[in-house]
């Protein structure tokens, strides 16, 4: 019987897979654009976009075509040799970020690691900090990934419990407060790493002027401003990068997720020569980073964002969606935080039940922390598709059912 197929897959995954996630009970077997299907053929709208890795939608034809064409030529060379896709791709990403140079990795957290390593090396070799004394300042509530260096930046008990000892030389300050950064700075401070909008924390938008003040503070104190745009980058917030909301240019861009169009893992950092030149042959790298398949896919993924005006679309549909959400009649709803199609809806109670009910209604989304639902559909969503979802969301989230 059809339903048993999904149940069986879930059972199998639970039996043989590690339990390091708590997924909604839905199995995705096919996908196209904003839509996904389970093995029984039930259709759902994806309102999570793989945590903003699918900004271009599922299986965008142009990106899939680039993948197929490249797969027929060469897929992996390692960096022991040059490959014909790496040059054009680094040039494209350099142009996009306005930076001199690009260093490719695969996942977001590897790009975070790369940025931290770049900052430390820069502190010793350019700033003149004494060996092993470099400090990094991070903002509480952050999510920079799951490696030991990244969780060393975190203050989330769920992400850090029993993983110590942690990487030393890290200071954690409140997000959104410039004064605490000023107090944390010492002559050994190498960098401040920050998400321009905190994603996993629940779409936390810092107070206006914060990013600009951090930028100024970093410049005044000869500290690198590292912007983790892994989740906010590539049009998600209604700008190509969320730092643009305050016209701020970081020293190091950290990118991932939608950089690979949801088709291939692609991440990178971009920075100017004075920083990137601290890397010398043998000092850092990755077997898969900058592979031809990744570069070809990422070039297509960037082109899709530009050709389909996804920055503008995210901004306009984000405003439309947010207006609709604000009209929901539910006095347990305590806050709506939004920039483009990057939206957090907070309640004064856990929202898992809502996510399950939305799934039953055909809309897939996920709680971030207990009390916030994140809505982040693929940016290729049409207004008609969004209207369809709004109707379902309105029904599920309204206290009195219309
Ligand atoms: N930085 C930020 C801001 C993120 O949101 C994430 C993933 N949610 C990461 C880094 C880590 O990316 P990945 O899971 O690809 O390692």
TrEMBL record:
<protein>
    <recommendedName>
        <fullName>Ornithine aminotransferase</fullName>
        <ecNumber>2.6.1.13</ecNumber>
    </recommendedName>
</protein>
<dbReference type="InterPro" id="IPR050103">
    <property type="entry name" value="Class-III_PLP-dep_AT"/>
</dbReference>
<keyword id="KW-0641">Proline biosynthesis</keyword>
<keyword id="KW-0963">Cytoplasm</keyword>
<dbReference type="InterPro" id="IPR034757">
    <property type="entry name" value="Ornith_aminotrans_bact"/>
</dbReference>
<dbReference type="GO" id="GO:0004587">
    <property type="term" value="F:ornithine aminotransferase activity"/>
</dbReference>
<keyword id="KW-0808">Transferase</keyword>
<dbReference type="GO" id="GO:0055129">
    <property type="term" value="P:L-proline biosynthetic process"/>
</dbReference>
<dbReference type="InterPro" id="IPR015422">
    <property type="entry name" value="PyrdxlP-dep_Trfase_small"/>
</dbReference>
<keyword id="KW-0028">Amino-acid biosynthesis</keyword>
<dbReference type="GO" id="GO:0005737">
    <property type="term" value="C:cytoplasm"/>
</dbReference>
<dbReference type="Pfam" id="PF00202">
    <property type="entry name" value="Aminotran_3"/>
</dbReference>
<keyword id="KW-0663">Pyridoxal phosphate</keyword>
<keyword id="KW-0032">Aminotransferase</keyword>
<comment type="function">
    <text>Catalyzes the interconversion of ornithine to glutamate semialdehyde.</text>
</comment>
<dbReference type="InterPro" id="IPR005814">
    <property type="entry name" value="Aminotrans_3"/>
</dbReference>
<comment type="pathway">
    <text>Amino-acid biosynthesis; L-proline biosynthesis; L-glutamate 5-semialdehyde from L-ornithine: step 1/1.</text>
</comment>
<comment type="similarity">
    <text>Belongs to the class-III pyridoxal-phosphate-dependent aminotransferase family. OAT subfamily.</text>
</comment>
<feature type="modified residue" description="N6-(pyridoxal phosphate)lysine">
    <location>
        <position position="257"/>
    </location>
</feature>
<dbReference type="GO" id="GO:0042802">
    <property type="term" value="F:identical protein binding"/>
</dbReference>
<dbReference type="InterPro" id="IPR015421">
    <property type="entry name" value="PyrdxlP-dep_Trfase_major"/>
</dbReference>
<dbReference type="GO" id="GO:0030170">
    <property type="term" value="F:pyridoxal phosphate binding"/>
</dbReference>
<dbReference type="InterPro" id="IPR010164">
    <property type="entry name" value="Orn_aminotrans"/>
</dbReference>
<dbReference type="InterPro" id="IPR015424">
    <property type="entry name" value="PyrdxlP-dep_Trfase"/>
</dbReference>
<dbReference type="InterPro" id="IPR049704">
    <property type="entry name" value="Aminotrans_3_PPA_site"/>
</dbReference>
């Amino acid at each position: 019987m059809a339903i048993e197929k999904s149940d069986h897959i879930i059972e199998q995954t639970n039996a043989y897979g590690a339990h390091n996630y708590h997924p909604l009970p839905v199995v995705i077997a096919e996908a196209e654009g904003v839509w996904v299907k389970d093995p029984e053929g039930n259709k759902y709208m994806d309102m999570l976009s793989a945590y903003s890795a699918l900004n271009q939608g599922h299986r965008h034809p142009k990106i899939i075509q680039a993948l197929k064409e490249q797969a027929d030529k060469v897929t992996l060379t390692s960096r022991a040799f040059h490959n014909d896709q790496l040059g054009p791709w680094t040039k494209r990403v350099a142009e996009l970020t306005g930076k001199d140079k690009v260093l490719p990795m695969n996942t977001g957290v590897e790009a975070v690691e790369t940025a931290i390593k770049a900052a430390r090396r820069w502190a010793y070799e350019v700033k003149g900090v004494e060996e092993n004394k470099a400090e990094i300042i991070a903002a509480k509530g952050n999510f920079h990934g799951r490696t030991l260096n990244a969780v060393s930046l975190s203050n989330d008990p769920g992400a850090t419990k029993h993983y110590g000892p942690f990487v030393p030389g890290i200071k954690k300050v409140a997000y959104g407060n410039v004064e605490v950064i000023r107090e944390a700075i010492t002559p050994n401070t190498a960098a401040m790493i920050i998400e321009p909008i905190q994603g996993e924390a629940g779409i936390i938008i810092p107070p206006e002027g914060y990013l600009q003040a951090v930028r100024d503070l970093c410049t005044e104190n000869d500290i690198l401003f590292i912007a983790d745009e892994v989740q906010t980058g590539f049009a998600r917030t209604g700008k190509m990068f969320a730092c643009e909301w305050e016209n701020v240019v970081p020293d190091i861009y950290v990118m991932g997720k939608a950089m690979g169009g949801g088709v291939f893992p692609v991440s990178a950092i971009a920075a100017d020569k004075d920083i990137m030149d601290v890397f010398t042959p043998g000092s850092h790298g990755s077997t898969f980073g900058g592979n031809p398949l990744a570069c070809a896919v990422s070039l297509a993924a960037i082109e899709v964002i530009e050709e389909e005006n996804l920055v503008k679309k995210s901004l306009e549909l984000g405003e439309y969606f947010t207006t609709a959400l604000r009209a929901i009649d539910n006095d347990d709803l305590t806050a709506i935080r939004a920039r483009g199609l990057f939206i957090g809806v907070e309640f004064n109670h856990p929202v898992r039940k809502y996510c399950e009910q939305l799934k039953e209604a055909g809309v897939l989304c996920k709680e971030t922390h207990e009390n916030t639902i994140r809505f982040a559909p693929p940016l290729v969503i049409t207004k008609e598709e969004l209207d369809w979802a709004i109707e379902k969301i309105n029904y599920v989230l309204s206290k009195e059912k219309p």
